[in-house]
């Protein structure tokens, strides 16, 4: 479309807004009804460790949303010379899991406990045994049950619990709902009914520690919506919360709020069976849409769903790119010290491309990119660390390749369980995230690590909020199609992407690295125990 056509659609409200609250960035993306991004804005933030709890303050949540919305609206004004007043549909997504409990007056009872906290081990273990279903520490029900086990005073006042996306959606629309993908990180889902598993609800309510409370679990959980179902409309109060200028009109159709895993599946067109996607950022996760049930319960494999409710095996890692970003920042500081000011993309490109000269096993160097604890490797806390032997080949190409291997190492370990023990493997993965902005390099490393073809599409660095905007358009008009057909025929009919096959030498080299990585985990654990935060 040319500028005038886009302008006409903006004026007519034939646009959708996707907002995603990620771990390091809140981004707002405005998309026309032909799925083209026409404006965006963002806000950078970081989680805070307060009283040993990873959290984000509520005031920063809204400051970030308003800042990203304002920047997006200003982008519209700058490029199309119109004010953004009408939006056809809106969708909110955010990092999954975590714990936000509210009382009857709508007060947040404890600071938001994010997915990054490894503080619910007892609860997660007990619920996994009770349900015969893997309940990760990140899940909302694990946080609630741990609070019960801890006899935290706030539990008696719980009236409603939700995720970050569910909280924002509630404040914008008044509706206490979640998309089924996000809900599957709150409590286990029954694949047949597309609702919370009623037998597990009963088992939870029957626990002696739970029976002391006046509430019943089903009454405090958000309602569930499937992709394509409308989840309320933007209220007048919600419009004011989004747009501080007061220009935005109420009434936009609200899509069901989703987790970043769900928007990742949508933005990579990976919702059909045997398709898979990977999102690599502060954390990383891979998703495989199942065509067969899992034979066993695995503590490293999460059972979640697509936004339309299909069962998905998810490998989630708490750490991925943060340590790489820290090292790249250090190299950037050095460059400035010698009078060279490099743009971030150039700096990442130069360092990543150096790995073309690296050895397949990264020269015997090891790195543990743990800024926080890691569930896959049972690491309680993070101590980023580089280890090498006297005879390792310590040079820049090997050093950077080590950090790329390290970023994907927990993801590989989890996927090896899925492939080797359950014989479940995607035909290929579609990957997205900032690690893939430098062409080829991260994509090849990931293909070698998983021994699976990896495709990167043209929107690899923008996926989440764009995927939520697509879900918003789907909620407004689903074209009488299921989600998989809608994505194939409406959204991705002309999609562009590049696929890289695994390299045999790279696969062997990565496997060698991973074996050494596993053997060195005791060193990382010793660092956790010896070096206190």
Instruction: Give the N-terminus to C-terminus distance in angstroms.
Output: 53 Å
* E-strand count: 24
- Beta fraction of the residues? 15-25%
- Overall shape: globular
Given the helix and strand composition, which structural class is it?
Answer: alpha/beta
Helix content: 25-40%
Q: Quaternary arrangement of the chains shown?
A: single chain
Q: What composes the largest sheet?
A: 7 strands, mixed
Low-confidence stretches: none
Question: If you had to describe this structure to a student in words, what would you say it looks like?
Answer:
The chain has a domain at 322-413 and 517-530. Helix content is 39%, strand content 19%. The strands form seven sheets. Strands 1, 2, 3, 6, 13, 14 and 15 form a seven-stranded mixed β-sheet that branches. The longest helix is centred in the C-terminal third of the chain and has 26 residues, at 396-421.
